[in-house]
Structures are given as structure tokens and as C-alpha cells.
Amino acid sequence: MSSRTAGVVLARSLSVVDDVALWSQVPPPFRGPARYFHAVTIGQRRALGMPSQALADERFRERLYAVLAAWGMSSRAAELSDYSELFRRAQALRDEIDVLASESLGALEQPAAVADTLWGLITRLRVSDTRSQLVAGSKFLHHLLPNLVPPMDRAYTGAFFCKHDLNSQTLVLQSRQDQWWRAMFCEFSRFAKQRREVIAPLIDGDWQTGVPKVIDNAIVGWVSTQKSR
Questions:
Q1: Rounded to whole angstroms, how far apart are CA atoms 53 and 4?
Q2: Most buried of 2, 27, 154, 204, CB within 10 angstroms?
């Protein structure tokens, strides 16, 4: 099932993972630092209160930078931005990020407008020193706005939404990033609202750290299973 949003056509909708309890609990391909730093960073972010308070905390900043590296953003292709420069930009945007702290992915009245606001933050944060900001920016903002922003990548999110053939070697999310971001975010929001009662009991303090992450885990579980067949 394909759906068209904001000028791009999604290869499939999240209805594919309608049994979100099943797909989100497929053992993930991520171990060690990737899981550890995610859990402790999200936990500390929530304990500190607002995103601006988290950004003011040096230990939180170091953990957030570590989770970005553990999630593949330190590779030559990703080119994670310099620590000091990245957090200088983030501090300058802290008030705009705080405005979104009360928003929840499954309760948005205007998801497209929120997607556009988030895209504006992603382009100004410049988490990656490359021209491609969608993946790195979503992972950064996910750890500041864990109830709102889904983390995205090419191997799973990109394959799910952009490839009819999951085994295709075609590179995804390289162009029209703003359009792909809006289309994928709106689909995440639609599904989060539709499956809210099923998703809520799945949230824990480990890997299922919020609605966006549960849905992301379901995508990873589904794509991993399909590719292994």
C-alpha cells in the first residue's frame, strides 16, 4: 500500500506493522553502546525537565553526543558535527525546542505544520557536516523530544518508506529530504494516534522509550524479518 504526501510517494504505510506489539519486540540488531547510551540519555532528559535544561547539563550533552556516535553518526559518511559547534547551535535554538516539549506524536492536530517546524530546526542544527541532515537531525531531536520526534535512518526507516524492494541497493533519503521528512513524520503521527492504546503499554525505560521509539522499533523488526526471508 502506497500513500502520497507532500510530493513524494511512500512505498508502504505503517498499517503493515499494525500488530505493533509483535513487530516492536523483534530482537533488535543493536547491542551494547547503542542501547545503553540511548536509555540513559532519554532517562536523563526526562529527569532534567525541559530540553533547555538538558542542553545546559554537560553530562547530558556528552551522553547525547555518545549516542549519536553509537548510532552510526561518527562514520565518515555521516560526518557528525564538532561537539562544541553543534551544541552552540542547539543552545541558540533551545527556546524553540522547548515550545515543542509538550507535544506528543499521537496527539497532533496539525502534524504537517509540526513536521515543517521540526525540519526548520533540523536544518539549523546541522548535526551532520554533510548535505544530508534528515537522519542525524532526527536522531538528535529524538533525544531532546522523545515523545514527539521519531529517530530515522536509511537502513530501516528509509527502506520501509522509500523502497518497494527492500533488497534494492538504491540510496534513499538523499534528495527532497524536506518532502520525505514531512511525509514520513505525518505517517508516524497518523499511526501513533490510531494505535495509541496498543502502543502505550509497550513503553519501558530500556529500548521502548516512548511512542516514536516503539513505532521505530516495529519498523526495524519488520524490515529485519523481511530481509532475512
A1: 38
A2: 154
Burial 94-121 (b: 16+ CB within 10 A, else e): beebbebbebbbbebeebeebbeebbeb
Which residue from 209, 223, 227 is spatially nearest to 157, judged by alpha carbons? 223
Instruction: Please enumerate in sequence order all residues whose Cβ is within 8 A of that of 197, keeping only pairs 6 or more positions apart, or say none.
Output: none
Per-residue DSSP letter, 201: G
Extract the C-alpha cell encoding 96. Answer: 524553540
Question: What are φ and ψ of residue 166, in 5° steps?
Answer: -65, -25
Q: What would the grid cell of residue 184 be?
A: 514520513
3-class secondary-structure state, position 192: helix
Interacting residues of 193 by C-beta distance below 8 A, sequence separation 6+:
106, 107, 108
Please report, for the chain, the start and end positions of each structural domain, with discontinuous segments joined by +: 3-227
Give the SS3 label for residue 68.
helix
- Written as nine digits, the cell of 147 is 515523545
Residue type at position 96: E
Q: Which residue shows C-alpha cell 552510526?
A: 72
Phi, psi torsion values for 119, nearest 5 degrees: -65, -40
Q: pLDDT tens digits for 83-133?
A: 999 999 999 999 999 999 999 999 999 999 999 999 999 999 999 999 899
- At 186, list the grid cell: 505525518
Report the predicted TM-score, pTM, of the whole model to 2 decimal places. 0.94
Distance in angstroms (rounded) separating the CA atoms of residues 220 and 223: 5
Contact, 194 vs 20, CB < 8 A?
no
CA 31 – CA 68 distance, rounded (Å): 14
How is residue 11 written as a grid cell?
512505498
